Amino acid sequence: MAETSTTNPKARTPAEMIGTIVSILGLIAIAIPLLTLGYAKVTGNITLHSTDQVSSWVTIGVILTVVGAGLGLIGTALNLPGVIKRANGARITSTALSGVALVASALFLLLMALPRANNLQTFNSTIVPFGHAIQNDCQTPLNNLTDKTSTQGWYKIQADATANAANDPSFVTAMTNDENLLVQDAKNIQTGITAFQTVTPPAKYQDLYTRCLGDLKGEYDFLTDPNGPSALPLPAPYNKLVAKIDGEQLISDSALVASGAAPIKVPQGTMQQLVITAINAINAQTDPALTADGNQLECDVNTTLNTNLTPIKQDVQGCPSS
Q: Is the preceding omega at residue 129 within 30 degrees of 0, hence cis?
């Protein structure tokens, strides 16, 4: 008498059940970045606020996509043999789930996640360090000296001279304090020059780098070198003291004359007006090309981030010309 098989051909093997679970996990992994992008596109409610956030989100997205593809591949490998040998609805469904996880993850990885991640990696390794160097080594020391809102630059000195226009003793005290600030400004600029000279700029921003370094050196020269090309020639009778002065001497010598300790005697309030007039001329000197180059860098950063994060928003960097 022939034996009757007790094996149920529809019963799923442990490997197939594991394959189903793995496939579902793969779908969940790829669904997270897809649903996140969908939510961002529909609502516009996701905004990244720093380059660290950008890097973290992109890294997590790539990891989830790779995990989804890997789980989809494992699920397919576990489910496909059962479909080939004993196809039924459950096995086909499970294999389809794993296939969807694999294909969706692979397409998302190749067409969106990796290209954007590569672009942002290049951005982080080249543009971001250069931008930090521009900001820390060039913009900040220059702004400390020339910005209207600075508490230690030319506008501050001019305000002090104006506030003490009719009081020579108070003017002398203010200029003495301001000279100390200028000395510190010069040290900060020298530090910026030293650091900035070690930077290798991206080719597109060579002009920005050259202009920024040139402005740093020009400001340092003006502050510290009475014989340099940026030194101020003095009109009579002040040229009896020295023919030309640097920025620091402008303030120290003005205080000296106003105190009455210099060989030259002038009416009260005279040196205040000299300082105010000189600083007006100093503040009138601008570098529009440097400003334009800096704005272009900021706009390029803005475009790179927007292009590679859309539909997710960012407020890491705007575009000054927009």
A: no
